[in-house]
Amino acid sequence: MRRAHPAAGLRRRARPRRRLPPLDRSPHRNPGKLRNPIVISLHEGRTSESLNGEWQYALDAADDGLAKGWSAATFDAADWRTLALPTNWYKTEIGDFFGTVWFRRTFTVPASFDGQRVFVRFGAVDYYADVWVNGHFLGSHEGMFNPFEFDVTDLVDREGENVVVLRDGAPRDETEYIQAVFSDNPLSDDYQRHQAKAISQIKGHMIDAMHRPGSMTKFRQDGTSGGPWGRVDLIARPHVYVDYVKLFTRIGIKKDWLGDQLDKPDGTALVSADVTIVNTTGRTVTTDATLTATPKTFEGSSAVSAPRRLTLQPGSNTVKLVVTISDAHLWWTWDHGSPDLYTATVAVGDDALDVTFGVKEVRQDEPTGHWYLNGKRVFLRGMRYITSQWLSEGTEQLWDDDLHKMLDMQINSIRIGSHVEPDRFYAKCDELGFLVWQVFPLHYCVSDSDDFVERAADMIRDMGQMLVNHASLGMWSVFKEPEIYLLPDKPNNYFRLCQILKETLATVDPTQWIHLGDYREGAQNLMIGGVQPGDIHLDEKVIEPQIVEFGAASIPVLETLKTFIPEDKLWPPHWDTWEYHGLFYDLAFDFAKIELGDSLEEFIDNYQSYEALVVKEQIEFFRQRKYEPVASMYLYYWSDSCPIIGSGLLDYYRRPYKVYDWMKAVYTRVLVSLERDVTPYVIGREKVYRPGTSFVAKLWVTNDLEHDLQDAAVSWAIRSSGGEVVASNALTGTIAADSVKRADHVVWAIPADAPLGEYRVELSARDAEGTLLSDNFLDFVVR
């Protein structure tokens, strides 16, 4: 008899196990003229009409809706229910349904569209989409993040009512899940660690990752992200229109012929635009085109190119436009300058389109892995981020809250790992000055078939075109973890898929660094006590420049835990249920060595306390090695993507873990920290000394500021639990800009008769005016 699924917190429904056919274009699916979707077209600022709101919908579990005539404009859908779009249907009454859902609504074409062409645009549909307007099949699309649209000018009734129908297929991927780890733990077989053999859908975190519904169990695809989660719009464009603009900027360099003969910035910037223009008139059109760069976030004059005379053939035309900004303001991360932005206006004939951009250059020094922004070396204090497992939950307010908390934590870089956020999120990063490292939506265990390579290459081209103009976009990865497989027969993704994806993305963005995938090319995961043993000897570990993941897991507060663990499975823990919801038994008790304790509250406190300590000490360790070799570091994650036992600073409901305040205290731009003189060097554990021995540690000062700190004061004091200072020192000097320095040796010869108990080393750094720059501590025990 099949055992009942213990994870009552997720809504599980019966669903077909077979995969939805990949958008068959056979004649029975194509009652009208097939129109290939226009995938990445700029639409911001166009005359538009929202089609968001109430749509009728019906589940198609048997996948026979087409045969029943559901695509027809005359079909009577009176018995269909209604649902507000955009949404991920998991968040609605539909729940965790895998399969096909049909959506339809009527619309009229606004009078403001008169004399213009009409397009229907879908911002994002997860995962397979077919679209009809007035019964005419427009075409199909695959993907979960990339927008697409169709020209419906000749199909719509401008005087009457029209019908748009969307067939959205989000099936469970047919990959086989195989138990990959055989551990001596209390988990049932289905809840041991399983691994997909070869996923065929390109959904990254949304289909297969650690901290998502089903976690690493046999059920790890649960929590579907299916649905039309991006907005739906009618878009108007003229008959000759600017379809797409790809911008590149270069900081002006000129050789000093009359001086020292060196190449130097000359204060200018060169802006070049690849402009795609569509001529739908059916005849050759001659017109002028100009490119204007206007300051958007600061006062200044515009730069306007000379008109370029164009002869546009029917169809798509691509031309180059160039303009020089004489007194260029550069885009910087918030901590190195101002994130100044411009508006590029591309005018072609009677049409004009605006695109926001920034003048910047990001370069990685290949031998060292160090990052240079506009020629200046910068250290990246980073954070991995995902809005939610269900991206329709992203709002302006949510992003504002998250990003301003990150500013308060002095984070300057964000890594978007194996998904693509909505466009407004990147726009906010542009405005606030966060440098973004974007990872294509591939996480684990995908197929390396020729078909998969082709489909993924098309999507990564879309991703590049969607994001390349954002000032915040600084670097790319084509795959999260292409070689993380626990099965013996591994797909050859690193040397097949990743290479093609890099080549394809480079055709869109040939200027910025493209990473083939973790963990090569100087990238490293060091989640000590998380996915690596907590007792790892760091003194024996080779450290790489890019720490793309560090951190640890933990258990959220009891209020949050009760939202997804049923009451009868909370205590004592029902381990299958807890594993399904992200505990990872082996990692918690073998790697982190968490004490269970005598109550649920004690267990939560034990895990949160360990996470806080080990994350703090990871940060200190990496920043003590700034540029030797560490160039960037990204905590895994900002917030949990769903209600789960996760690894965020905040849980899904944005309630903080204990680690939040601990990390905030050591992610400051100036940090004073200790490195104990012990072998082996283990972090995150209780530090025990015996009477008659010595406490010895190096005192490091890390300065991420771009200016020297003259007459800075650094002090330390070892204080007993009773408040007695048993050793101390204070020193004053200059802390160099953008540096790390061993400033002192902390030594206390512990007397043989020293009181037993807890001691704390208190550390501080202040500037010449006495302003506190860093306030830190290290606890140890004498016994």
From TrEMBL:
Residues 1-37 are annotated as: Disordered. Residues 264-351 form the Glycoside hydrolase family 2 immunoglobulin-like beta-sandwich domain. One of its GO terms (biological process) is carbohydrate metabolic process. Residues 49-165 form the Glycosyl hydrolases family 2 sugar binding domain. It comes from the Bacteria. GO terms for molecular function: hydrolase activity, hydrolyzing O-glycosyl compounds. Residues 371-516 form the Glycoside hydrolase family 2 catalytic domain. Residues 1-20 have a biased composition (Basic residues). Gene3D superfamilies: Galactose-binding domain-like (2.60.120.260), Glycosidases (3.20.20.80), Immunoglobulins (2.60.40.10). Keywords: Glycosidase, Hydrolase. SUPFAM superfamilies: (Trans)glycosidases (SSF51445), beta-Galactosidase/glucuronidase domain (SSF49303), Galactose-binding domain-like (SSF49785). InterPro entries: Beta-gal/glucu_dom_sf, Galactose-bd-like_sf, GH, GH2_Domain-Containing, Glyco_hydro_2_cat, Glyco_hydro_2_N, Ig-like_fold, Ig-like_GH2. Belongs to the glycosyl hydrolase 2 family. This is Beta-mannosidase. It comes from Microbacterium ulmi.
